[in-house]
Amino acid sequence: MLLTSPMPEDPQSFLQAVETAPDSVALEIFQVRYPATDHELDEQLWLAVDEQRLDVDVRHELIRNGFRAGVLGGTVPDKLAKYLKLESEMPKTKAARLITGQSADPSVTRRFVQLDRSEFATIKASRLRPKLNVLLCKESGLCGRSYQQVQAVYSMRAEAVAGQRVVLRLTPELQHGELRNRYAGSDQGIFLVTPSRERELYDQLELNVEMTAGEILIVGGLPDAPSSLGHAFHAEKQRGPAELKLILVRLVEVPRSEILADLP
Hints:
This protein is mainly β. It has helices at about 40-50, 55-65, 80-85, 100-105, 230-235; strands at about 25-35, 65-70, 110-115, 120-125, 130-140, 140-160, 165-185, 190-200, 205-210, 215-220, 235, 245-255.
């Protein structure tokens, strides 16, 4: 049928532009691993980050459980820029590329996502571990639990609000146990069968912050909080010295202003 049908006047008409929702939000997600002994990065970073943008009760819960978070609205600290490999000039490319342990498991990863208010994205904060013991600090006291086949994940949602601002929500959760087929409902009223693990949600630690374009939400772990939930999300020791991990979510693009919406 393709061979016998006449070609359209415009061959590019087959490639229609992707239509995005009017309230969609564009985000960049960086994950940065660095040595746990690099205290200079911690000092520079948390002096520049505004932790007061988070609700005070949530901030206390985060610190009690080994997390630290805030919003960076200005210049990226020099030490962090070095780990992100932000350069003023493009590096020279080579015809041959050698795959090493560093390139196969990079210390910095970047991902671009676009969300509207009905969608969510997941950020895998850790590798899949065969076993994990976690201590959780609650108002009632300290409690612990062991998990099998566990992975630390952030569930992320973004909702555009008035004034070209976006409310970004990050909820930590542990996905654990064996993969099993589970039923999930959709907006169309259809039940979908997807393989997934059990989920342990920590709603009391949800990050809820209002941001503007260009700002970065930074989430990390306290270096001296072993066995905490934050340590499970932001500490790694696969081989060699122990490392910590930062997660950066940069707001790239927000919906057009309501005032300018009718302009061409």
